[in-house]
Amino acid sequence: MPDRRSADVTAKSALRGPTTRIHVRDRPFSPYRRDPTLLRFGDRGPAHSNILSDPGATVPTVTTCSPQLTFDELGTPLRDVTFCVVDLETTGGSHRKDAITEVGLVSVRGGERLAELSTLVAPGTPVPPDVSRLTGITDAMLAGAPPLGAVLPGVLDHLRGSVLVAHNAPFDTGFLRAACQQQERPWPSPPVLCTARLARAVLPHSECPSVRLGALSAHFGCTTTPDHRALTDARATVEVLHHLLERIGNLGVQSIEELLQLVRDRAPHRPTTAQRRRRHLANDVPAAPGVYLFRDARGDVLYVGTSGDLHRRVRSYFTAGERRRRVRDMVAQAERVDTVVCAHALEASVRELRLIAAHRPRYNRRSRNPGRAWWVVPTAEAFPRLSVVATPRPGALGPFTSQRSATAVLDAALDAVPLRRCTIRIPARNPTATPCALHELGRCAAPCAGLQPAEEYRPAVQTWHDLVDGRDDAPLRALAAEVETRSAAGLYEAAGRARDRLADLAAGIDRAGTLSALAQLDEVVGARPDGAGGWELAVVRHGRLAAAGNAPRGVRPMPEIESLRRSAQTVLPEPGPLRGAHAEEVRLLHRWLTGGGTRLVRSDPPWAEPAHGGGPWRSWAERAKEAAHRTGEEPP
């Protein structure tokens, strides 16, 4: 058994010089040695640890249905891997024009330190003052240091058969590769492990936001503090490496091949070639709120978006953070980015809607059809019934974003308003159809069979119009009473269904009333604080944004508002509940005018919503929706 002791050996070869020190541990390494102060690679539990700690222990027989893996398939266990941890100090950050000034190297295997190397290197050029202040390495210290050609062979000897480890490895490997090329020596191409990337792959960002060597060393409580000297930083990197390897046991990583694959799999995405080549498209984009349009080589609009900072948003499309495949495909086709600078976010959002509607870009999924909506309307016949259509008529309730949601409200309305459910056309005189089952159940007066004349049917039609126009919410109160009755009787499922239908109907009437009320106004002017002491201004006419502007801090807002009104777009109202405006734009304007501290400067005529519409039921409908989600019932 050789004597286990440490020896400091001074190099007498090419590394000879007063600035060179090599430390070698002369004791043999045993993969079974279990020193509790050293890192234990590959432990899977107490039983596994006991076997490794006693080479003579009997290994239990394990029966398995899987074929035994070969050693090649298992890979090299981490405890058998020699990690050569390297740190370089240089005269600058470019391996093409800067030079190495110091090399620090530590070889470890199985948690044991096998060798250390530390040497200054004559760079052949003066050390910049800022680098000297950072590292403490001066030109005087480098006087008499060995040249790169004398140091490099010893470094390469350590790298052969080892895994090269470095913190921010591309920096160190770049200088070492350049040194090999300069000295006309072959690069040994060792596997490379970057501890910065390993840390980002293993540690949650919330646990350690920074992966700088100093931050990681402090996080793990390492005994060595990095100080921008090569050997000290290499020793600190060794400790960080060991702590990181302790964290990968629960990831099933046992071999160096699995470790390197883990780092590759969890490495941050890089920008595509197309993204890198098109970064210049963001150069002239202003840092202001507005709308951006990506165009292809023919000038066709590919995508329309909006942002409070156009430059930052457009630039993000050309970074690694943009990982959506659909967007990357769009960027690959883009040849130009046009922008429309806006006064504030509201104007940008409205312009985005209008531009999407005008160009219908193929990469926009939302708001491609802002004018498309669904309405619940009474049919124009002697005995009207409710129908879902795409064009509003008198007595229309809506708009709804989908035919499905409109149909759900129609079904709820038929529970509240005694209109017929059948779809046959009933003649005004002498109807002779056979009554359906609903008549037998007492849910229809059978006007189709002449059992209910038109005069008796008209009050039901008027009830619908009064409900939609917000003149009478008696049908909603009747549905609410039905919910209470069923709940009191213990019919909870039936009460839940009635509750959901009432919530759908009340929300639909509320939405229709608020949007229609805004669209009827000839003009409404709003002012919202901009957060910097000024005001964001908007002029809305018949549900459309007619003008937008700003009154910066120190500028009187009223003269700006009057100037904005005089230059605002003339809007001619059209027939219909929304006076020709698109529902999405009216929703945006309503949300802005009623929230965020917006003050109404002017309204012509006065802005009012129906007293007996869906407004008084708004909070009830919201609570009903929340209750449905809590019980796992998805409203239709």
Give short descriptive properties of this protein.
four-stranded antiparallel beta sheet; GIY-YIG endonuclease; 4 domains; 636 residues; alpha+beta; disordered N terminus; seven-stranded mixed beta sheet; Nucleotidyltransferase, domain 5
What can you see in these coordinates?
The protein has 22 helices and 17 strands. The chain is of the alpha+beta class and 636 residues long. It has 4 domains: 6-54 and 75-265, Nucleotidyltransferase, domain 5 (2-Layer Sandwich), CATH 3.30.420; 273-359, GIY-YIG endonuclease (3-Layer(aba) Sandwich), CATH 3.40.1440.10; 374-494, no CATH class; 522-606, no CATH class. A 7-stranded mixed β-sheet has the order 1-2-5-4-3-6-7. The relative contact order is 0.06.
CATH architecture of the largest domain: 2-Layer Sandwich
Radius of gyration: 38 Å
Gap between N and C termini: 80 Å
Mean of residue pLDDT? 85
Query: What is the assembly state of the chains in this entry?
Result: single chain
Question: How many helices?
Answer: 22
Strand order of the largest sheet: 1-2-5-4-3-6-7
CATH topology of the largest domain: Nucleotidyltransferase, domain 5
The fraction of residues assigned to DSSP E strands is 15-25%
CATH class category name of the largest domain? Alpha Beta
**Mass-distribution shape:** elongated
**In CATH, what is the homologous superfamily of the largest domain?**
Ribonuclease H-like superfamily/Ribonuclease H
> Percent range for helical residues?
25-40%
Uncertain stretches of 5 or more adjacent residues:
1-73
Largest sheet, if any? 7 strands, mixed
Structural class: alpha+beta
Integer tally of domains: 4
* Overall strand count: 17
Protein name: UvrABC system protein C
Biased composition (Basic and acidic residues): 620-636
Pfam families: GIY-YIG (PF01541), RNase_T (PF00929)
Organism: Pseudonocardia autotrophica (Amycolata autotrophica)
